[in-house]
Write a structure and sequence with these properties.
By secondary structure, this protein is α+β, with helices and mostly antiparallel strands. It has 4 domains: about 90 residues, no CATH class; about 45 residues, no CATH class; about 140 residues, Nucleotidyltransferase, domain 5 (2-Layer Sandwich); about 130 residues, no CATH class. Helix content is about 45%, strand content about 20%. The chain contains 16 helices and 14 strands. The longest helix has 21 residues. The structure holds zinc ion. Zinc ion (ZN) binds next to loops.
């Protein structure tokens, strides 16, 4: 029979196909009868043993190898031996080449699809993946960001902490939880932690307490998008409060036409929406006023990379706060109080490099989408590894840099590139 296996030490003797795939019967080829390791005397044959191992698929079907091996026994001490087959991974009940093939694919495909292709149990695929993830943890290191983003995503049943490189738009790390118990050890053990110059986060207090003691050169800036989002949320609350006072028919009308209108910036309003805003100004002046207050708050950040400096931003906020009506709009007064609670960290934005929030929230949403898609049925650990270490993630995240001291080109990995991941997720190329 033609040796379609190409595995050293065995030869195929029969082949059958059924609904589960291809079964190949193989025998050990030309093994010499060994000497006993203990006694150094010639052993003698003592029956046979057959074992089944999964191998790489053929003709797009799973392959099972049934290998029959002779057994030997030492007449002197009774020790048993079988010929060792180096191509087998006995622990996985598979050929080493299959295990290698699974390692190459398990972070880019679903375990289920791999199990179907190979005939291995989903759990076996998972175990191979966990071994690989452990090795990657020890060997793959992404360059510590100079400008670091810390945020949260809701996936696999909880809020997870995502650490990003904001200068390059790459994911740097994911932590299981965003509590201090998880954050502190991460920052304490972070390589090159003195590299970090800026940390951009939301107003979640534990973030600041967690990195403060460990990042000696880092300055905190509260993420712009989290700040302006509060103005939109304040407007949303005012709208709902206002809406509750209308009769039912009006309420439906307001809800449909005003909800999105009030959340948009004037520059993104369609002509029809601009007209609707004019109607609101004449018929619902309080709501129009709330819209203008939201807009005035957004303007603190507008044109941030042109001429505005920190003093002007501070002045715009002071004017905005002073313009708030004393009695109405409690949500906006609450926003003013929040700004005061985080004053230095919010206005540190105007000291920071201009790219510090570029495309940030937008991209992160894309990643959440991707992670959720990857996440069906997966544990957090798997989603993390697939996000951080999958081949597509790592190749798009690396670049070649010439080391200025040694003049040698080095591959520097920054981690998965968020916009590329988002594109792949949109194209349905991640599963
Ligand atoms: Zn012996």
């Amino acid at each position: 029979m033609f040796d379609l296996l190409n595995l050293p030490g065995i030869k195929p003797v029969d082949l059958s196909t059924d609904s589960k795939g291809i079964t190949i019967i193989a025998e050990v080829d030309g093994a010499e009868i060994p000497k006993c390791e203990e006694c150094q005397v010639q052993m003698h044959r003592h029956g046979r043993r057959t074992g089944t191992f999964a191998d790489t698929p053929m003709q797009m079907q799973p392959v099972r190898l049934k290998i029959t091996r002779p057994r030997y026994r030492c007449g002197s001490c009774g020790k048993m031996a079988t010929p060792e087959l180096t191509f087998l991974d006995e622990r996985r009940r598979a050929t080493a080449r299959l295990v290698e093939a699974i390692r190459g694919r398990c972070l880019g495909m679903t375990f289920h699809a791999l199990a179907e292709q190979t005939g291995l149990a989903v759990n076996s695929i998972k175990n191979i993946a966990f071994d690989l993830i452990g090795e990657l943890e020890d060997t793959v290191h992404y360059e510590t960001p100079v400008i670091m983003g810390i945020d949260e995503v809701n996936l696999a049943g909880g809020y997870r902490c995502v650490i990003t490189n904001l200068a390059t738009n790459n994911i740097f790390e994911m932590l299981e939880h965003r509590t201090q118990d998880h954050l502190k050890p991460f920052f304490k053990n972070l390589r090159d932690r003195e590299r970090v110059e800026w940390v951009c986060t939301d107003m979640w207090r534990p973030f600041k307490c967690s990195f403060g003691p460990y990042l000696p050169n880092a300055k905190l800036v509260i993420d712009k998008f989290h700040v302006v989002k509060m103005a939109s949320e304040a407007l949303e609350s005012e709208r709902k409060r206002y809406q509750a006072e209308l009769d039912k028919e009006e309420r439906v009308r307001v809800k449909k036409s005003i909800r999105w209108l009030t959340l948009k910036r004037p520059s993104s309003l369609s002509p029809a929406e601009q007209e609707a805003l004019t109607v609101i100004r004449s018929q619902l002046p309080s709501l129009a006023e709330a819209y203008d207050i939201k807009e005035a708050f957004y303007q603190i950040y507008d044109a941030e990379d042109k001429d505005k400096d920190k003093d002007e931003a501070i002045q715009l906020f002071a004017q905005w706060e002073a313009s708030l009506p004393k009695k109405d709009f409690p949500e906006f007064r609450k926003l003013a109080k929040t700004v005061h609670n985080h004053y230095d960290d919010i206005f540190a934005y105007w000291d920071s490099p201009s790219q510090i929030t570029n495309a940030y929230t937008e991209s992160l949403n894309g990643v959440i989408k991707m992670a959720n898609r990857l996440g069906r049925g997966y544990s957090y650990e798997i989603i993390r590894a697939k996000t951080l270490y999958a081949k597509y993630a790592r190749t798009v995240g690396s670049g070649i840099l010439v080391n200025p001291t040694t003049k040698v080109s080095e591959t520097v990995e920054y981690g998965p590139h968020i916009p590329t991941l988002v594109d792949l997720a949109d194209d349905g190329e991640l599963d």
